[in-house]
Specification:
Blueprint: H1 12-23, H2 36-45, H3 50-63, H4 66-70, H5 75-78, H6 85-100, H7 106-116, H8 126-145, H9 153-180, H10 188-216, H11 231-240, E1 246-251, H12 256-267, E2 272-280, H13 287-293, E3 300-302, E4 309-311, E5 314-315, H14 319-329, E6 334-338, H15 339-344, H16 347-356, E7 360-365, H17 368-372, H18 381-401, E8 406-410, E9 416-417, E10 433-439, E11 444-450, E12 455-459, E13 470-474, E14 489-490, H19 496-499, E15 500-508, E16 515-516, E17 519-522, E18 527-528, E19 532-539, E20 547-548, E21 550-558, E22 568-572, E23 583-589, E24 602-610, E25 617-627
Parallel strand pairs: 1-7, 1-8, 6-7, 16-20, 18-25
Antiparallel strand pairs: 2-15, 3-4, 4-5, 8-15, 9-14, 10-11, 11-13, 12-13, 17-19, 19-23, 21-22, 21-24, 24-25
């Protein structure tokens, strides 16, 4: 009686089929009351009954042949519907086609994905939607900038750090989420498109343009301010000479876009402030040289018959050697330590005692490069990046707990990565000859080296090194053929992805530096006269570095706490645009109790927010109304 259900052979399952049919945007309507929407809403939001909802939703979808109904459906007709997970499959499938044919704008795609964010099945398909968003962003940026002419070395670097690095960022995020989706075949068309555009038009096309600039360089100048070899003098010394303790965290292989990603995490923390600069690494851009360049250094050379770098004749290989150089040349009490050993320390006891002994502490971590440099694990390098960014957050929090205030996070070099298997044309033509000391996919060190027109030749002096060593670098993104070595993850060359490294300066503050954005409602009346209440929610300011998004869940309740409507969940995270663009509307469906038992009583619209780290919600705001619904509103449309 309550829901207007009639049947010659009534069953609970038949009732549910009627409910789903009536509330499905493309379903067959019957006499079922609109209040059935509330029951489904409460059912979906009740954790203890969600497994039953999922099982029954899929069974009902099968019995109602929803897949067949969706085949010819328009996106706009189903974009707000979330009864069946088949709806998300249909939406993802259609959006893949639109992106691949480049017939949808970035703005339109984001609007459609945003409408799915608060839907029931979204978390099941979050990786799919992330692929759509990141793939689209990457393609759009390449289309806009892929054929840009580079005027000079400085112009190329500046263009990269200001915007173009995001192409590599979006590609990394795409591949990461694609792998998390278990490389689902529904994304295959888009993945092929992403790989083709990224590898051919960006890495190769832009790489060839950048190589033209590299070909013109006869010296890798260490005197310009952004040189990695000036790191100690320009960035470390000014802090330690003021008597301030400094922690330098060096993450092996943390390229620039990863540093930018890490900055976003820092900015969302309550008591940390971060600033991102950049440096240009040594050439070749490999670990031994990059690590040495970050130490106090004057005279640097390559040890004969190896790739080990010497500073004033002293080895820089390994933790003990680097610690000795810091002790001898830094001018302060200095040491070096592995990150794993550092985080194992008890913060309040041995940790603080250790820190008191030094003015300068270098902390080394090797996760990205370790995974990428192994042929058997190089395909997991983007997962390693994610783990590394989380680990770096743990380190700075550990430092802060040990009363550390000043931190610098940087890297020895960056990297190139292509997820697809490389074609034969991606390898340099011809073999390298001469007295070879060290050979890698992206560089060769030795004497009397020749490599043909596909490589660029440097002497040690041209690379700011003492001695008579010579170096060959493959041009553009080409690799050197080496038996048994990985080829998808490489570094050592002169590509922007390899040589532009992040320089993050992080400070621990005493006061909170962030807050969540405020949410209000635009209230035109304090009376509810029909069983539909339209509410406009307003994000009062734009989300920024220090103003963070806020998720809310809202519904109408009786004063005694009984739920009287469906529930609406939404994440407010608009970063640009007018006030109108920050407004979101929802039409709450009230139950028949609102015009019955609670007629003429006060009710409240309650806004809740999640309790961090739990599945619980806490009250954020509430707004009061008086119920004055006529009995005629209990009748559905007739």
């Amino acid at each position: 009686r309550k829901y207007g259900y009639t049947s010659e052979s009534p069953t609970i399952y038949d009732l549910l089929i009627e409910f789903f049919n009536n509330n499905f945007s493309l379903g067959k309507k019957s006499t079922i009351a609109k209040e059935s929407k509330i029951l489904i809403s409460i059912w979906k939001d009740t954790i203890s009954y969600q497994s039953a909802y999922r099982e029954l939703s899929r069974k009902i979808a099968d019995d109602l042949k929803i897949e067949s109904v969706l085949n010819d459906a328009n996106l706009e007709d189903i974009i707000q519907d979330d009864l069946f997970d088949l709806i998300d499959k249909k939406i993802v499938s259609e959006l893949v086609k639109l992106i691949c044919s480049e017939t949808i704008s970035n703005e339109k795609l984001n609007q459609l994905i945003k409408k799915r964010e608060n839907k029931y099945w979204y978390l099941d398909y979050e990786d799919f939607y992330s692929c759509l968003s990141n793939g689209m962003q990457m393609i759009s940026l390449i289309r806009k900038n892929g054929k840009t002419n580079i005027e000079s070395f400085t112009d190329g670097i500046n263009s990269y750090i200001q915007q173009l690095f995001k192409i590599d960022y979006y590609y990394r995020k795409y591949i990461y989420h694609y792998r998390k989706s278990k490389q689902n075949k529904i994304l295959q068309l888009l993945t092929d498109k992403v790989e083709k555009v990224y590898c051919n038009e960006w890495l190769l096309g832009h790489g060839n343009e950048w190589q033209r600039i590299i070909d013109e360089k006869s010296n890798w100048d260490s005197q310009f301010k952004i040189s990695q070899q000036r790191f100690f003098n320009d960035h470390v010394k000014p802090i330690i000479t003021k008597g301030q303790r400094l922690f330098v965290i060096i993450s092996d292989g943390l390229r620039y876009e990863c540093g930018w990603d890490y900055l976003q995490k820092i900015q969302s923390e309550k008591r940390f402030e971060g600033e991102l600069e950049y440096m240009v690494s040594t050439l070749p851009s490999y670990t031994q040289f990059g690590m040495a360049a970050l130490l106090p250094n004057t005279n640097m050379s390559i040890q004969e018959k190896s790739d080990n770098i010497l500073i004033d004749g002293l080895s820089t290989q390994g933790l003990i050697s680097r610690s000795k150089i810091l002790e001898q040349f830094s001018g302060v009490r200095a040491t070096a330590i592995n990150a794993e050993d550092f985080v194992k320390m008890n913060t309040l006891i041995d940790g603080r005692e250790f820190v008191k002994l030094f003015d300068l502490i270098y902390i080394y971590h090797n996760q990205i490069d370790k995974v990428g440099d192994d042929k058997t694990s190089e395909h997991k390098v983007f997962e390693a990046v994610n783990r590394e960014l989380e680990f770096l957050m743990d380190i700075i929090k550990k430092i802060a707990a040990m009363n550390g205030t000043n931190m610098i996070i940087t890297a020895d070099h960056g990297f190139l990565y292509q997820n697809n298997e490389l074609a034969e044309s991606d390898f340099s033509i011809g073999s390298v000859s001469g007295d070879i000391w060290k050979e890698s996919r992206r560089y060769v060190i030795g004497k009397n080296l020749t490599g043909g027109t596909s490589t660029k030749h440097f002497t040690a002096e041209q690379l700011n090194l003492l001695g008579d060593a010579e170096i060959l670098i493959p041009k553009s993104i080409n690799r050197i053929r080496i038996k048994g070595a990985g080829s998808r993850f490489v570094h050592g060359g002169a590509s922007l992805q390899e040589i532009v490294i992040p320089l993050l300066k992080v400070t621990k503050t005493r006061q909170d530096t962030t807050k969540q954005v405020d949410i209000d409602i635009i209230k035109s009346t304090d009376k509810i006269t029909t069983n539909i209440l339209a509410v406009s929610f307003l994000q009062t300011e734009l989300v920024s570095d220090k103003i963070l998004p806020r998720q809310i869940r809202s519904a109408i309740y009786a004063e005694e706490g009984e739920l009287l409507s469906d529930q609406f969940t939404y994440k407010f995270d608009v970063t640009e645009g007018t006030e109108r663009m920050r407004e979101v509307k929802h039409r709450f469906q009230l139950s028949s109790k609102a015009s019955g038992r609670f007629k003429n009583q006060r009710v409240k619209l309650v806004l809740e927010e999640p309790v961090e780290g739990t599945s619980k919600w806490k009250q954020y705001k509430e707004y009061y109304y008086t119920l004055n619904i006529s009995f005629t509103n209990d009748f559905d449309d007739m």
